[in-house]
Design a protein that fits this description.
The protein is α+β, with helices and mostly antiparallel strands and about 200 residues long. About 35% of the residues lie in helices and about 10% in strands. The strands form 3 sheets. The chain has a two-stranded antiparallel ribbon with strand order 1-2. It has a two-stranded antiparallel ribbon with strand order 3-4.
Length: about 200
Amino acid sequence: MYRYVKKSRNNRKQMLLDYMGAKCIVCSYNKCNSALDFHHLDPRKKEFSISQIINKSVDIQLKEVRKCVVLCATCHREHHAGMLDLKGLKQDFHPEILEKYGYSGDVVIYKKARVKRRCFCGNNFECKEKNQKYCSMTCARIGSRKVVRPTKKNLKMLIWKYPMIKLSQMLGVSDKAISKWCDYYGLKKPGRGYWLSLPS
């Protein structure tokens, strides 16, 4: 999952840099995108840092980067140290480059066709990635479980019918997992010595 998120963020940053010329406005450095920063010319107009909105809609991102200039890491630090004055500098924008990414000017005109699938929970969803199986992170956690968690009603019946060790063998999980299920459902477990107190 992290691999796909990182790739998506890098692609979006590349698009925004291309929109702004993909080079430092001061020294024209353009070798490494990781060394290029978005700097707000007027801090009073800053609503978000670009890193905070890198996963938001393109319209929001373009609106925010229009308040910025591209600086390399060195020029950025020198400016904040008071060694570099940015007065008189104006960032050039290249709306035509957005067509390469599926946009026309500053407006989204289409998105890549996405495969539609049905999640095991019953929801239909559009796949953002080729191997996406679930509609949400909640379903992904449930779907990745090795065993099916019993319902609250069934678990309550089982924990009072079988000792924890035997129940864990029956369900194919550890007693710790069963304890977590009970905590999740808010179920009270048999206390210490309960099974010894029962008639044999």
